[in-house]
Structures are given as C-alpha cells and as structure tokens.
Amino acid sequence: MWKWGKLELGWGFAALIVLALLGGAGPALPPVLLAAACHELGHLSALWLAGARVEFHCDQTGSMMFRLGGVEPGAETKKIALTFDDGPHPRYTEELLDGLAERDVKATFFLLGQNIEGREEIIERMAREGHLIGNHTYYHVDITRLSQREACREILDTSEKITAITGQPVEYIRPPFGNWDKELECEVMMLPIFWSVDTLDWTTKNEDQIVQKVVTKIEENDIILMHDSYDSTVKAALRIVDLLQAEGYEFVTADELILE
Ligand SMILES: [Zn+2]
User: Ligand 1 centroid vs 190 CA: distance in angstroms?
Assistant: First the structure.
C-alpha cells in the first residue's frame, strides 16, 4: 500500500536530509549541489525511517516528493460494504457472485429462511468465497410485531438452516424494515446491521439510477442496502464496484465496519 505525499519545504528540507545523512552540521550547500543531492536522494529507492519505508524524488519546482510504504495494508483505504437482502435468488445471486469473484470483492448477504431450500449450493459458495452471511428472518417479518417466542423462531430457524450448510454460526441480522427489538433475547445473541445508503433498487429497478444514487452519495464506511433479486441490481452493483474501486474504495464485509 503506497501513499503519495508532497513536501513543500523544497531545498531547505533536502539540505537537512543531506546533512543528516552526512552525519552532522556543515556549511549550507549551494543550490546546484542541493539539486544534485536531491536527485541523488531520488535515486535511493528506499530508505527506512521511523519504521516506515520512504521513497523520495524531486520535481521541477524543487519540491521533494516522498511516499510511505510498509504501513499496515488497508490501514489507509476507504472502506465500504455492499449488502444484499432477501436472497438467495436462484439466478441473480449466482450472477452477482460471479461478478464479485472476478473483482475480488467481498459482500454481505442477509438471507431469508424461506429462500434457502434448494439453493444450498449458492450459500455454500458464498461462504467459500469469503462473503459474510447474515439472517433476515424466515418469512421477512417485522420482528417488533411478533411475540418474543415467534420472533425467536423466525431468527433461530433461519440461522439453523444457514449453519447446517456453512458449518458457521450466524452472528448478524438485518431486521426487515429496519425494525429491531433491542430487548429481544433468543438462545443466541444476534447483532443487528442496518444501512446508511438505501438504493431503493427494488422500487426503481433502474440500473442507472441505482448507480447514480450510490456513487454520488458514497462516503467512507457506508453500508449500502441492495437486493440480489433483480437483474438491474446485479448490473448496478458491479458497475458501482468498478467505479468506486477506481476511486480507491475497498469493499469489505459489513461486520468490519460496525466493529470498528
Ligand atoms: Zn428485506
């Protein structure tokens, strides 16, 4: 992970570095020598400084450019998460997984219990390819309108089905309609994951509008809500990935953003 920075301090800074490298104070060097020194420094491909790898080079104005490497990978990238509710869909989810795999992007899928049977292979693939799988209740219900017993049944039955396929516990839930009962205590603790950008993809089914809405509003750490049940959503999601990867965004699973 490389990040470019620019030092505007010019020759004075170059002189300080040269003097420091020479190991002591000395008379100020004439500009011609400084220019040469700066270019010499530019040829030093890497220096180790305070634990970070630093590369220098000079530009025409005499400013020195430097770049830092050796920092923890991903520490300075802008992270965002794509989340897909209501699936898996027998056709569009696989198309989406193909596109995400080509782009090496991890996403989050909140599954409906009622959509799992017969689509086990898709869910197995999600897990194998590093996507996060969460719970979206069994029948897409408003948890807050049910008794505690019914609500827990909705959640536990769905988690059980997912775990039977992936072998992994389900820790996260996207409550339908965003309605979550904080007091709800089932046999296992579930962490709710909401969203910050609602694409409204299920109402518009318009690829261009979905892309526009996301790329014009996106900010670091956003969690984007979509539904992998539509052709338009799959196409829009992959376009969003291409556009935002080019802007330096990294797509991560939603748990990474809520746990930071
Ligand atoms: Zn939903």
Answer: 17
